[in-house]
Amino acid sequence: MNQEVLIHTVDCRKCIEKVSHMPTDTGSPIRKDVCIYTDPQGTVMNVGRDDRHEKFSVQSSSADTDTHPILTSDEIWSGVGLRNPKILLLSQILPPMIGGSGRYFWEIVRRMPRDRIMVISDLVEGAVEFDATHMVPTIRMPMTFHETGTVSRRGLANYVSIARRVRDECIRHNIEYLWCGRCVPEGWIGWLVNQLSGLPYFVSAHGEEVTIPESGSTSGVMTSRQHRWMARRVFANAVGVIANSENTRHIIRNSWNVPDERIHRVTPGVETDVFVPAPVCETTRATLGWVNRTVLLTVGRLQKRKGHDLMIEALNRVREKIPNVLYAIIGDGPERERLTELVGKLKLNNCVRFYGECDFHSLVRAYQQSDLFVLPNRQIGAEIEGFGMVLLEAQSCGKPVIAGASGGTSETMGLFTTGFIVDCTNLTTLADATTMLLSDEALRQKMGLAAREWVIRNFEWSSRVNQVDGLVSDLHDKSVP
C-alpha cells in the first residue's frame, strides 16, 4: 500500500495537495512552487529546490496551526541522503535553457548517483519550476556576464564575486572536483576558485568555442585576445579536459597544447527509449501540414553555421526529381528573418515551413514522421558544429541522415550505412545526395534500421555517465598518496 505523502510550498508554507505516490525524476503532478515532500510524520523524503529561499518549511500532517519547523539547506540535503557530493558541475547553460551543451550536461548529471553530483547554474526564467521536477541538488545564482573578459574592473569584479560564491558552496558541500561547462566563462571561474582554494577542476570543450579563428576572422569566441589569454590558463591548470568529439580532442591537443593523457572523449548520447521509430501516422502528419508531402527535416538553432540557407538554395534542384518535397525547419534564432527573405526571393513559400521552437513531444513526432533528416552545416570563421546531437536523435527514430563536412558530425553516424557527410557549400552535391535518398524508399528504410541499431550500440547515455564517473574516480585515485 502506498504511503500518503504531503506536499508543501515555500510560498504559503501550507500543505496544498495530497498524493499517494512519490513524484518521479521525469515529472510530477505538483504545483510549480512546491519544494519539499514529507511523509505523514513530517520527515523529509524528497526535495525540489528553490534557491531564492535560504530556508525551507516543513509541516507535519498532525499539525493544526500555520507554524512550521524550519530546516536549513544542509539539514534538508542530509535528510534525503544527498550530503557531501564529490563533483560540482558549474554550467551557465542548463535546462530549462535551450542548448545542446546544456542538454548534454543534464542527461549525464541526472543519471549520476546523487551522492556524487551537485549543480550550480544560472537563475533563468523557468528554472525554479524546472528544478521542482527533479532530484539533482541544484543551486541557482545569477550568472549573467555583461563582459566575459577580465580587462575591465566591472568584468573582473563579476568573475571574482561568482568565484567566491562557488568556492564557498564547494567548501560547504565538501566538493572534491569542480566540473566547468566551458573554458569561458565557467572555466575561468574554475581557475579563480583553484587560485583561491586549491580545488582541482576539469573543463568541458564542445568544439566551436575553442576553435582559434584564422587571421582576420571576426566570428567565434576565441576572436577575443582576452578569451585566448584566459583559455590558455584554464587549460594549463585543469586536471582534465572532456572533449565532446574526436575533432574537439584534436583542437584541444593541437591548438591549446594539452597533452593526450589529460584529454578525455565523452560524446553526447541519446535517449533511445524516447526517440523511437514509429509507423506513419496520417493524423500527426496532417497536424504538421505534411499530407502528401515528402518531408526533409532540420532541427537546430537558426545560425549561419547550421546551413539552413544552403538547403533552401539547393531545394529547387531537389524539386526537379521530388516535386512534393517540403523542407521543415524546427528551431529559432538570429537567421530567421534572413532565411524567410531567402525563401520568398526563391519563390519557395510552398516548399519551406518554419515551425519555431517546438515542445518535446512535438519534436519527437516530427523526427518520427519525417522522411529524411539533414543538418547542412558548414564552418563560418571559427564556428563549427562540435558534434550534432540532433543527428543522433534522428537516427534513433530510424531516419537516415545527411550532414556537412565540418566539425565532429562524421562521428555521429556510420558513414554510408546510416548517413552521408557531404560538402554542403556545394549546392549540387547537397541536392544530389538529398534527391538520391528521398527517391529511394527501400534505401531509406535499410539505412534507417541500421541507424537505429547504430545509436543503441554506441550512444546510450548510461555509458557516458560511467565515463565521467570513472574519470573522476581515476583522478581521485591518482591524487591519493
Give a written overview of the molecule:
With 481 residues, the protein is α/β, with parallel strands linked by helices. Helix content is 37%, strand content 18%. It folds into 3 domains: 5-79, no CATH class; 87-269 and 461-479, Glycogen Phosphorylase B (Rossmann fold, 3-Layer(aba) Sandwich); 282-458, Glycogen Phosphorylase B (Rossmann fold, 3-Layer(aba) Sandwich), CATH 3.40.50. The protein has a 7-stranded parallel beta sheet, sandwiched between helices. Strands 16-15-14-17-18-19 form a 6-stranded parallel beta sheet, sandwiched between helices. The chain is globular. Mean pLDDT is 84; it is low at 1-85.
Summary of the model, kept short:
The chain has 481 residues and is an alpha/beta fold.
Radius of gyration: 24 Å
General form: globular
State the CATH topology of the largest domain. Rossmann fold
The CATH C-level class name of the largest domain: Alpha Beta
Strand content: 15-25%
Number of helices: 15
Question: What is the total number of structural domains?
Answer: 3
Question: Could you name the CATH homologous superfamily of the largest domain?
Answer: Glycogen Phosphorylase B
Using the 3D structure, state the CATH architecture of the largest domain: 3-Layer(aba) Sandwich
Sketch the major β-sheet: 7 strands, parallel
Query: How is the largest sheet built, in terms of strand order?
Result: 9-8-7-10-11-12-13
Estimated helix fraction: 25-40%
Secondary structure: number of strands: 19
Mean pLDDT over the residues: 84
Structural class: alpha/beta
Distance between the termini: 50 Å
Model regions low in confidence, pLDDT < 50 over at least 5 residues: 1-85
